[in-house]
Amino acid sequence: MHAACMQAAFTTVMQAAYRRMQAAYDRVQPACIRSGNTALCVTRRDRIRNDTVRSMLQQEESLVQKIRKRQLTWFGHVTRTEGERLQQTALHCHIEGESSLGRQTWMTCIKEDVSEQDKSIQQAVELARHRAAWRRFVSASSSS
User: Fold this and answer.
1) Where do the domains of the chain lie?
2) Is the pLDDT of residue 16 over 80?
3) Based on the number of CB atoms within 10 Å of its own CB, is 13 exposed (0-12), middle (13-18) or buried (19 or more)?
4) How many angstroms from the chain centroid is the CA of residue 21?
5) What is the CA radius of gyration of the chain?
6) How many beta carbons lie within 10 A of that of residue 22, not counting itself?
């Protein structure tokens, strides 16, 4: 009983943290491009796309790609952990019902990122158990 309560509480905390991260991302993405535009003395009236500004600043990947890469890296780390740790339990548990805000869960985002590379979640778990192979997979997914 105690473990089930802890699991539900931890999962709720993880979902709240994910929502906060998503909200922060929504605020940071335009700010990063805005700061890049300021460095180039470019205004919105110039109508230059964010991708063009990013290439002018020689940024290799966008903030979205960096976040996805970090999420996949953390997923690999949690997958490789031994035993019944709380992170593993929270990662693979399923809570009945839906979020009142209708947002995606963290695992749903991982499944989407993995499916973009034509892999299932089971294949990703097997791949994540081998650190070198997982690193290649994560770097390939962030470069596309």
Assistant:
1) 2-143
2) no
3) exposed
4) 9
5) 18
6) 14
Is the Cβ–Cβ distance between 12 and 100 less than 8 Å?
no
The band of 132, judged by pLDDT with boundaries at 50, 70 and 90, is very high
Statement: the pTM of the whole predicted model exceeds 0.85 = no
Q: Going by C-beta distance under 8 Å and a sequence separation of 6 or more, which residues neighbour residue 110?
A: 71, 72, 75, 121, 124
For residue 131, what are its two tokens?
Answer: 């650190």
Secondary structure of residue 126 in the 3-state scheme: helix
Burial 31-58 (b: 16+ CB within 10 A, else e): ebbeebbeeeebeeeeeeeeeebbeeee
Question: Model confidence over 30-55: pLDDT tens digits?
Answer: 555 555 555 667 777 878 787 787 77
**Six-digit token string for 79:** 């997958």
